[in-house]
Amino acid sequence: MVIRDYFFVGHQLDIIMDKNTMSNHHFLQKENTVLGAVSSFLLSRTVFIHCTIFAILAWFCLPNLGHDMLENYAWGQTFEWGSFKHPPLFSWITRWWFMLWPTTTIAYYALSYLNNALALLGILCLSRQLLPNKEQSNLAQTQLFLFLVLLFCLFAYPYNLYAVKFNADTILFSLWPWTAVAFLASLDTTASFKKWLWTLLFSVLAAASILGKYFSVVLLFTLFIISIVEQRYRAWYKTPFPYACLALFLLLLTPHIAWEVRMDFPFRTYTSRYLSTIPENNFTLWECLSNIINFSLSGIYYFVLSWTTWLILRQRTPKSSAAPCIEKSNKRVLNYLCFLPISLIIVSAVVFNIHLMERWATSVWFALPILMANLLSKHVDLVKVPLTVLLKRLTYFWAFTVTFLLVFTLFVATYQAQKENRLDYAEANKEMAVAIAQQFEKKFPGKKFNWLSGFSWPDHPAALAFYLPNHPRAVPFFPDQMPALVNPHATWNQEYGAIICGKNIKDDVRLITDCINRTHAWLASKHLPINEEMIAYHAQGWRYFKTAEKQVVVFWITPSVA
C-alpha cells in the first residue's frame, strides 16, 4: 500500500510538471501550491521509507551492536563534559534516547537512522538555501532538483549502510548540513529578528558540532573562509551578529574546555595514534602519499552508485543549454562547501603528519550531492526527467539491497558463524551478558552487580553494561587507573563488580593471556583475592544454525570495605 501510494504521488507530480511546462500563468498560480505540497510529501516520505528499510535491515543482519555504539552507551551512563577519546555530545544523546526507549538493538538502530533522516533533511534544506528565489514557472525544476539531491544521497554509502553506526563520525552527518544552513541563513537574511534567530542557532549548532567531534573545526574554518572570500558577506563583520555568535559559541563550550583543562586534555593519548611519526606507524613516503590519494578519492568511491546514476541521467535525458539551477555567487559557495573541507584536511595531514582514516571522509562530502544535481542541471533539462522512472530506480535499489543483505546474512548464519571469531554476526554479546549474570547470581545470591571493567575496551564491559538488566557501570581497563579516572567510579572497592578478559573477532588469543596476567598483578598490588572463573557461551536464537562456543575469563571483585 505504501509503495503503491508512493508511485501514485510521483505520477501526479509528473503530470503537474508536464502542465507547468506548457500552461499559462493562471494555471501555474493555481497548481503551484499543489506542486509544492506533493513534492514536500514525496521527499519526506522517501526519507522515511529509506531510513525505515535500513533500520530494519540492520536489526535483522547485525544482531550485535558496533563497539563504538556500546562505548557511547557506557560513556553516557554518567553525565560528563568529556571522555578520554571524544567530546561528549553523542554519549549525551545516547543517554537521553535510552531514557525513553528500552536497551535493545532495534532501538539503537532506530537512533542511528533518525540521525540519518535529520542528515538527509538538512542536505535538502541546504539545497533550498543555495537555490535562488525562482519565479513560479520554475518551481517544477526546483522540485526535481531537490529530488535528485536526495536520490544521490540515498545511493551514497554514508547515507545507507554506514549510517547504521551512531558514533563520533556519523553524528556529524546531521550536524554539518544544518550548521551550514544556519550559517548561510544568518548571512543572507535581511529581517533583523530572523537574522538574530539564525545567528543564535548557528552558534548553538557550531558548538554542538565541536562537542560532537573536534574534527568539526574543519567545517567552521570552511564557513569562516566563505564569509571572508565572498565580498557580499564581508559586511557581516561590520554588524554585531558575528561577535554575538562568537560569544555564545565560546560560552557554550566553556564547561567542556574547563573540564579538559582540569583533566589535562586526556584525548591526546587517543589522537596521537593517528600521527604518522609515531614508531608504531612508521609509514613510508609512498604509504603516506597513497593514504592521501585514497582519502581524496573518497568522494568517488563512497558515491559510486550516485555517480553511475548521474552518468545514466546525463546520457538518457534531453539536453539543455540552460544555466544550472544554482548560479553565480551561490555556485561559488557550493564549491567551497564541497571542496574546502577535504582540502583543509589534506593540508593538515601533510603539515601535522596525520594518518588519514577513510571513515573521516564520510561526513565531509555532505554538499557533493547538491553539486552533482547542479552539474546535471547544466547539461540536461530537469523538467524532462520523469520522476516515476527515478522512483522505480530507487525502489529497485531498495529491493536489491534487501535481497542481497538477506542472502548474505543467510550465508553468514549457515557457514561463517560456525567458525569462531570470524564475523561480528556471532559475537553474542547478549548471550555473554546472560551467562555472566546467571553465574553472578549463583555466586552472590541477592547481591547487586554494580560495576565492571576489562582490558579489551569497550567490547565486553560496555556490552555487559548495555545488556545486563541493571546496567552496571562500565569503566575501561582498571577502575583506579587512567583512563578510568577520567570518568571515575569512586566506590568500586565498596561494591560487587568484575573484570572481564576476552577477545573480539580482531584480537589475537594472546590478548586473554595478557589480560589475565595484568589482572593478577593488579589484584596483588591491591591485596585483593583472586576469584577467577571461565564462563562459556555461544550465540543463540532464530538467526543461527550452529555457532562456535566462546569463552571469557571473569575476575569477581567483592567489597573490601563493609
TrEMBL record:
Keywords: Cell membrane, Glycosyltransferase, Membrane, Transferase, Transmembrane, Transmembrane helix. The keyword Transferase applies. One of its GO terms (biological process) is lipopolysaccharide biosynthetic process. Its main location: membrane. It is found in: Cell membrane. It holds the Pfam family PMT_2. The keyword Transmembrane applies. GO terms for cellular component: plasma membrane. Residues 85-259 form the Glycosyltransferase RgtA/B/C/D-like domain. The chain crosses the membrane at residues 34-60, 106-127, 139-159, 196-229, 241-259, 292-313, 333-354, 396-415. It is a multi-pass membrane protein. GO terms for molecular function: pentosyltransferase activity. This is Glycosyltransferase RgtA/B/C/D-like domain-containing protein. It comes from Legionella drancourtii LLAP12.
